[in-house]
Give the backbone structure.
Amino acid sequence: MPDPASRLDPATCRARIAAEDHRWNAMLVLAPDDGDRRPAAGPLHGLTLAVKDNIDVAGMATTSGCRAMAGAMPRANAAVMDRLLAAGAVVIGKTNLSEFSFEVRSRSSLGGDVRCPFAPDASAGGSSGGSAVAVARGFAWAAIGTDTGGSIRIPAACNGLVGLRPAHGMLPLGGVAPLAPSTDTIGPIARTVADAERLYRAMGGTIAATAIPAAPPRLGVLRQAFGDDPRIVAACERTLHRLAQAGMELVDPFTIPDIEALLAGPHIVDAEFAAAFDDYLARNFLPGTAPANLAAILAGGDFLPDHRKAITERLVRKPGEAAAILERHGELTATLVQAMAAHRLDGLVHPTMRVIPEGLGNPSGGWAPELAARTGWPAISVPAPTAPDERPVGVELLVPAGREGLLFDLARTMEGGAGT
């Protein structure tokens, strides 16, 4: 069983990081040890947080994992960090990530590969891999990451944790390095659904009061996204059984018409990253501490060589490309809304990833996490029931925006009602 929050004090967390993080590469830097400074009174009083190093914490560099940005000092806290600190949280340090949040693994020029504690020769997932491993190993009570196309949910799934992607636009992104503003979000990685909800509320997330439903929720089982790994299929079946036993109605299988075609074509990251990141570099940092722009980073060569091609191509901006991609996002959303309405569905359930990472390469996790990204709907990954010697598997719930209360209720059912 994980340590209770009361035992994850800053001194304990620092000792664990010093003792074992050389095995996992989860942390990039520790926060200054303000032992004499008392945290604010609030709902997170004294609880330790690890923060992905693309999120501003005043007095600490925000590097996005890139050597060229090792000294980039933000002007202030990210807006969400102000809220968390006001709620009493204590930042333990900044976590390793996929450099610029580009990939489904977490490899950076500053921190190397984040390794999975359940399989040290495998990736911990990404791009918020360091945040997930920090929670899994008790380096912090919980962590904050970002999610553009799965970057919270995927590492949460790989490490047996709960990962929440809030609805797009629910939480402010000031002071957060952009990847694709049209789909970027920020959210928590935690041990339990209750802890994730606690953080979500402290970050400013809202849950609308809704009437008690007249009938049990109906969930579509998206078999199209399952893949063929028997470990993942078996773990998902256990979760589906748990939902059915709790009285949920399962439409199995549920199919999204023409899903492959709707997901085809250029990605919004390709269209939006360069301009958004250049604006971020120009506005976000104290003078003289950060590179002038992405072209300067490319020219200097002080970044992960794996990303040279992606940076070069993303610097070539194509007029109208982003608008065309977002139009396809709208088509996908309309198709999904229509298909769900035809079956009277309240949400969808599917594996977070269709593979379990077996090495340090960039895993082909499947397209399912993109559904939340392209619709803007909230989603949560919850660990499926597995044996102690089995690798973790995450099962994801997706519901329309505005139904966060249902999302958390269903997620608690999926984890068996576990509390903090």
Summary: The chain has 13 helices and 15 strands. Residues 127 and 388 are 26 Å apart (CA to CA). The first strand starts at residue 27 and ends at 30. The radius of gyration is 20 Å.
